UniProtKB/TrEMBL annotation:
This is Glycosyl hydrolase. The lineage of its organism: Bacteria, Bacillati, Actinomycetota, Actinomycetes, Micromonosporales. SUPFAM superfamilies: Six-hairpin glycosidases. GO terms for biological process: carbohydrate metabolic process. Residues 421-508 form the Non-reducing end beta-L-arabinofuranosidase-like GH127 middle domain. Pfam families: Beta-AFase-like_GH127_cat (PF07944), Glyco_hydro127C (PF20737), Glyco_hydro127M (PF20736). InterPro entries: 6-hairpin_glycosidase_sf (IPR008928), 6hp_glycosidase-like_sf (IPR012341), Beta-AFase-like (IPR049174), Beta-AFase-like_GH127_C (IPR049049), Beta-AFase-like_GH127_cat (IPR012878), Beta-AFase-like_GH127_middle (IPR049046). Gene3D superfamilies: 1.50.10.10. It comes from Phytohabitans houttuyneae.
């Protein structure tokens, strides 16, 4: 069987190892993968039935889908497809899920000619492709095709893979060179078509993807109130300097563009996306790796416009960013892409889901000013509006997106090339590539030590490359030849290996203070605390109700002491530090000459940001104001 993974380029610097080759057996990600299988996937399945979004397919198949009977938003079909994709990966990695049932329901709703969407084209509904701006028909196909590819990669041809291929063929006819010269308002189908090309070898899928990438930016879509930048139709991606507009759309388009560039040898297109990634990471990305600073248009903001309380940081944008970084890593072999993927996985993707796997954030701000009320978990909630994770939302793109990502996470960990094996993310498990088998043992990110044991190997020498994250500054590498210091990038151990050989990488996960570029006005005068790849935050539930988190000050020379916090999980580390509070006097006007507030001694507890809001409604902040320095009395 071939490699089983979400992104399998035919060429590039690195060849991904699949989730059949990288097994996560426990620890931080292994436990989350098990929770995803046991809790999140069945939870999403339940809600798709409960809300009628799955029922739409039943009704479509029986010609009973009068408009008043259809449930959900115009893109609700895609949630069924993303759940199908999650189930396909779960089955491919050896688990169980009722995918056959779902696939049969989906396939039965497909029309002759391959068209498939429960929102359009039936008596009483708007005609097919009559609202490409907002209708999401091609976006939905993209998710159907990705689900089909996941199934094909697992070695199965069934009703789902057949439906995906028929939909793709339909799109190539309908939107090809002699078809409609049109675009979907939401990119997504581009990367799906390239992956279907990779999975089947059918070149017209790649041609169609390239056509869609090149067609965008030509003002094909209408000039809406938010401007054509909202759906990246203002400037061709080849000419753009930085990601802009709706964050998920921009990042999905960039994924498709990288895929097209890699498969067609279009180095200029690849370089254009790398340039935009650099500009976006330099000035439009949060400490957590989150992207998208504006609620308006769910969009990237201007450079350095990174508010904490109003941060949008949609979970889907984080998933999309990880997908993009992985593609750029495979294309270039550069560690910086794996660095951002790690930051985003630990601090946004992990934060998006509750500890029980059944509630989800849509937005992931870095400050919560009001605790709000406990959410009733028996009903869906409006999006992006509470301090607690919701079980489901009217717009519920994020839970299924996280489910498919976590189910396929083994496919984002390691690669191989002609010289050996590269480990980009550290998670307990096993890695196999050809004649070589490794065991990775680690309690990362709580502990910085990663042990790699060679279980099986060929006689010829090969190289083991271990990523040292930029945040580490320096790490200690212990090999059979001895110990040495290594810097950020890839630490490479080249030798003739024997079964039983061990390598140990020690990453310095002691807590550290982090500053921000002063141009990020929202956090000027503040510091954050990180520990290894984890961003920390202060949460009100750890403090006396009298301590207002907006009144704390920290002294960065203060000691940060570690202690276990079993209430949030085994191995979880909390941090304590002295932090005086200054409660400003409320005079009915929050401005004036210098504050006369008195500082009172106090202590602050910091917890990993990804674990906040698991102990009831809470206020929270990541960036902490630095105490004003003592006045200079000279
Ligand atoms: Zn989403």
């Amino acid at each position: 069987m071939g490699t089983i993974g979400p992104v399998l380029p035919t060429t590039g610097a690195l060849r991904p190892l699949g989730l059949d080759q990288v097994r996560l057996t426990g620890g931080f990600w292994g436990e989350r993968q098990q929770r995803n299988a046991k809790a999140t996937i069945p939870h999403a399945h339940h809600w798709l039935e409960q809300t009628g979004w799955l029922g739409n397919f039943h009704l479509a198949a029986t010609d009973d889908l009068a408009p008043h009977r259809r449930r959900g938003r115009e893109f609700s079909d895609s949630e069924v497809y993303k759940l199908a994709e999650a189930m396909a990966w779960e089955i491919a990695r050896g688990g169980n899920a009722p995918l056959d049932e779902l696939s049969t329901v989906v396939a039965a709703a497909q029309e002759p000619g391959g068209y498939l969407n429960t929102m359009f084209g039936r008596p009483g509904q708007a005609p097919r492709y009559s609202d490409l701006t907002w209708g999401h028909e091609l976006y939905c196909y993209g998710h159907l095709i990705q689900a089909g590819v996941a199934r094909l990669r697992g070695g199965v041809r069934d009703a789902l893979t057949n439906a995906a291929v028929r939909a793709a063929d339909h799109v190539c006819v309908e939107f090809g060179p002699s078809g409609r010269q049109a675009l979907c308002g939401h990119p997504e189908i581009e990367m799906a078509l390239v992956e279907l090309y990779r999975a089947t070898g059918t070149a017209r899928y790649l041609d169609q993807a390239r056509l869609f990438v090149d067609r965008r930016g030509q003002a094909t879509l209408p000039d809406i109130e938010l401007g054509r930048a909202y759906f990246q139709d203002d400037i061709p991606i080849r000419e753009r300097g930085v990601f802009a507009g709706h964050a998920v759309r921009a990042l999905y388009l960039a994924c498709g563009a990288v895929d097209v560039a890699v498969e067609t040898g279009d180095d200029k297109l690849l370089a254009a996306v790398v340039r935009q990634w650099e500009a976006t990471v330099a000035a439009r990305t949060y400490l957590t790796g989150g992207m998208g600073s504006r609620h308006e248009g769910e969009a990237f903001g201007d450079d350095y416009e990174l508010p904490n309380d109003r941060a949008y940081i949609e979970t889907c944008a984080a998933v999309a960013s990880v997908m993009l970084s992985w593609r750029l890593l495979l294309a270039t072999g550069e560690a910086r892409f794996a660095d951002l993927a790690e930051r985003t996985l630990f601090n946004v993707v992990a934060a998006s889901t509750s500890l029980d796997g059944r509630a989800f954030f849509y937005a992931n701000p870095l400050q919560q000013r009001s605790a709000g009320e406990a959410l009733d978990r028996s009903r869906p909630w409006p999006r992006a509006s509470s301090s607690e994770r919701a079980p489901w939302r009217d717009v519920s793109c994020c839970p299924t997106n996280v489910a498919r990502t976590i189910a396929s996470l083994g496919g984002y960990v390691a690669t191989a090339d002609g010289g050996g094996i590269q480990l980009h993310q550290y998670a307990g498990g096993t890695v196999t590539s050809g004649d070589t088998a490794l065991t990775v043992a680690t309690a990362y990110p709580w502990n910085g030590t990663v042990r790699i044991r060679v279980d099986r190997t060929a006689d010829a020498p090969w190289s083991l490359s271990l990523r040292v994250p930029a945040w580490a500054g320096e790490a200690m590498l212990v090999t059979p030849e001895g110990a040495k210091r290594v810097g950020p990038g890839y630490a490479v151990v080249s030798r003739a290996w024997c079964a039983g050989d061990q390598v140990r990488l020690k990453l310095p996960v002691a807590p550290r203070w982090t500053d921000a570029d002063p141009r990020i006005d929202a956090v000027r005068g503040c510091v954050a605390v990180e520990r290894g790849p984890l961003v920390y935050c202060a949460e009100s539930v750890d403090h006396d109700p009298a301590v207002a988190l907006d009144a704390v000050n920290v002294d960065r020379s203060a000691p940060l002491s570690e202690r276990p916090l079993p209430a949030l999980g085994r191995d979880v580390v909390a941090l304590d530090l002295p932090a005086p509070t200054t409660s400003a006097a409320g005079n009915g006007w929050p401005y004036g000459s210098s504050s006369t507030a008195e500082a009172e001694p106090g202590n602050l507890t910091l917890v990993p940001y990804h674990l906040w809001a698991n102990r009831g409604p809470a206020t929270m902040r990541v960036w902490l104001p630095v105490a004003p320095s003592t006045p200079d009395r000279r």
